[in-house]
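Example for tutorial group B:
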C-alpha cells in the first residue's frame, strides 16, 4: 500500500512539474550546459540540440558542453568565467547537487548532520555563483535540478540512505534563487523518479540511473531531453501534417508543409511535398545495453514530439494503397488506415528520415570530439588544478599524470586523450572539426521537396 501511495504521489509530481516552463531557445542563441559528469559524459544536451536542428532548420543555435565529472557547486563557481562565460553564451544552464550531497553510507543523526553540512557548503558556493551570474545580465539563466539518485531500484549497488532527499534540498535552493532573480527553472528529479517508480512496479530492478544509481543510461538521457523540451512547450508540435481529399482532388490541411502539383482521384494521388522540418531520428544502436530509442518505452516522445502525419480520405474502400516517395516504396496501407492518418516520422525508409539520420550521425561525431576536449579539461580542473598545475602541460606534468594514472582508474581512462590534447595544435584542430561539423549540420538539415505517389496495390 505504501509503495502504491509513493507511485501515485510521484506521478502527481511528474504531472505538476510542467507548470515550470522554460522559454524556448531563439535564433542565434549560444547555450552552455554547465554541470557535473551527468552533463560532461551525458547526451541529453546533444539530444535537445538535435531536436532544434531537425525541427527548426532555418534557426541556428549552438550548444556547448561545460560539464566536469565530479564537480560540486564550488568547483563550478571557480571555472564559470573561463569555462562558461568565455564561450560568449546567450543562455547558461546550471545543474548541481549529485556530488554536493556526498557518498557516505551513514544512518540516523550522523547522516542528517552530514547532509546539513554538505548542503550548507553548496549553499555558500551557490551564493557566489549567483553573484557571477548576475554580473552578466544579458545572459539568460536556466537552473536545472539534478536527475535523481535512485535508492529504490533492486540492484547490486548498495543504496545511500537519504541521498535523493538531500539532493532535493539543493534543488530547492536553485528554485528559490530562480524565483528571486526571475530565472528559468526546471527539475529533472521528480519526473524521472516518477518514471523509475512506475517501471519498478513490474520490474523492481529497473532504473534510468545506471548500475551506480547516479548516471542516467542513454535512454535516460533521451528522457531528460524529452522532459526539457516538454518544459519548453514543444509537446504537440508536429513535424508536419497533411490531409488530402482524393475524391475531391484537394488539400484540406497543410500544417508546417507545402503541397504543389496535386493530382488526385479515388484511385491514385500524386503531389510534390515540402515539409518545413525533419522527423526526429532515434538511434537504435545499443550503448551499455540500452539505446536512445528505448526511451519510447518510458515516455510518449513519438506521440507528443515526432508526428509527420499523412492523411488521405476519399480513396476506394476495401483497397490497399502503396505509397512511394521519390520512387522509394515506404509501405502499403488499407484505405481505412490512410483515412485515419499515417505517421511518416516513424518510417525509416522515407528520404526525409534518411536525411535526418545523417544529421544524427554527424551530431554524434561532433559530440564525440567535444567529449575528448572535455576529458582534457576534466583532467586539468579535477586533477592538475588542485596541484597548482592548471594549464601546465609540460613534460614534467605529463610524467606526473602518467604516474598518477597507475593508481587512479579515471585518470588512466583519459590518459591517451590527454597525450594528444595537451598539444594546443591538436585541441585547435578538434575545435575546428566541431565548428566544421556544426556548419555542415546546418547545411544538410534543410528540408527538400519530394514527389509522393499513392496507388492501388494490385497484388
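The residue assignment follows.
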Amino acid at each position: 500500500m505504501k509503495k502504491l501511495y509513493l507511485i501515485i504521489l510521484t506521478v502527481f509530481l511528474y504531472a505538476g512539474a510542467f507548470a515550470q516552463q522554460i522559454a524556448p531557445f531563439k535564433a542565434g542563441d549560444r547555450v552552455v550546459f554547465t554541470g557535473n559528469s551527468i552533463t560532461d559524459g551525458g547526451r541529453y544536451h546533444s539530444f535537445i540540440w538535435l531536436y532544434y536542428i531537425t525541427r527548426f532548420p532555418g534557426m541556428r543555435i549552438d550548444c556547448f558542453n561545460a560539464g566536469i565529472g565530479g564537480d560540486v557547486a564550488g568547483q563550478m563557481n571557480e571555472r564559470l568565467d573561463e569555462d562558461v562565460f568565455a564561450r560568449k553564451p546567450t543562455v547558461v544552464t546550471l545543474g548541481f547537487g549529485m556530488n554536493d550531497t556526498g557518498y557516505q553510507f551513514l544512518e540516523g543523526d550522523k547522516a542528517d548532520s552530514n547532509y546539513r553540512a554538505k548542503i550548507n557548503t553548496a549553499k555558500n558556493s551557490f551564493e557566489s555563483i549567483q553573484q557571477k551570474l548576475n554580473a552578466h545580465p544579458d545572459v539568460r539563466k536556466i537552473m536545472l535540478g539534478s536527475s535523481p539518485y535512485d535508492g529504490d531500484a533492486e540492484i547490486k549497488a548498495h543504496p545511500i540512505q537519504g541521498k535523493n532527499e538531500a539532493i532535493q534540498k539543493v534543488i530547492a535552493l536553485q528554485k528559490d534563487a530562480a524565483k528571486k532573480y526571475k530565472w528559468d527553472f526546471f527539475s529533472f528529479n521528480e519526473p524521472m523518479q516518477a518514471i523509475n517508480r512506475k517501471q519498478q512496479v513490474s520490474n523492481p530492478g529497473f532504473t534510468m540511473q545506471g548500475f551506480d544509481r547516479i548516471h542516467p543510461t542513454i535512454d535516460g538521457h533521451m528522457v531528460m531531453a524529452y522532459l526539457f523540451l516538454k518544459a519548453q512547450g514543444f509537446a504537440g508540435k508536429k513535424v508536419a501534417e497533411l490531409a488530402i481529399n482524393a475524391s475531391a482532388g484537394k488539400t484540406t490541411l497543410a500544417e508546417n508543409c507545402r503541397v504543389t502539383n496535386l493530382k488526385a482521384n479515388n484511385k491514385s494521388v500524386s503531389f510534390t511535398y515540402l515539409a518545413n522540418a525533419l522527423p526526429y531520428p532515434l538511434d537504435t544502436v545499443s550503448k551499455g545495453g540500452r539505446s536512445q530509442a528505448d526511451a519510447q518505452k518510458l515516455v510518449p516522445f513519438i506521440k507528443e514530439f515526432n508526428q509527420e502525419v499523412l492523411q488521405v480520405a476519399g480513396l476506394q474502400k476495401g483497397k490497399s494503397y502503396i505509397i512511394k516517395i521519390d520512387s522509394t516504396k515506404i509501405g502499403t496501407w488499407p484505405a481505412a488506415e490512410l483515412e485515419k492518418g499515417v505517421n511518416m516520422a516513424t518510417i525509416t525508409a522515407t528520404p526525409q528520415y534518411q536525411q535526418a539520420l545523417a544529421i544524427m550521425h554527424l551530431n554524434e561525431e561532433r559530440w564525440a570530439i567535444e567529449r575528448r576536449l572535455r576529458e582534457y579539461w576534466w583532467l586539468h580542473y579535477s586533477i592538475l588544478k588542485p596541484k597548482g598545475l592548471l594549464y601546465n602541460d609540460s613534460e614534467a606534468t605529463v610524467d606526473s599524470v602518467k604516474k598518477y594514472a597507475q593508481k587512479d582508474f579515471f585518470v588512466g581512462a583519459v590518459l591517451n586523450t590527454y597525450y594528444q590534447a595537451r598539444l594546443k595544435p591538436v585541441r585547435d584542430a578538434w575545435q575546428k572539426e566541431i565548428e566544421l561539423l556544426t556548419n555542415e549540420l546546418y547545411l544538410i538539415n534543410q528540408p527538400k521537396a519530394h514527389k509522393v505517389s499513392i496507388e492501388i496495390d494490385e497484388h
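The mean pLDDT is 95. Compare this with the pattern of hydrophobic and polar residues in the output above.
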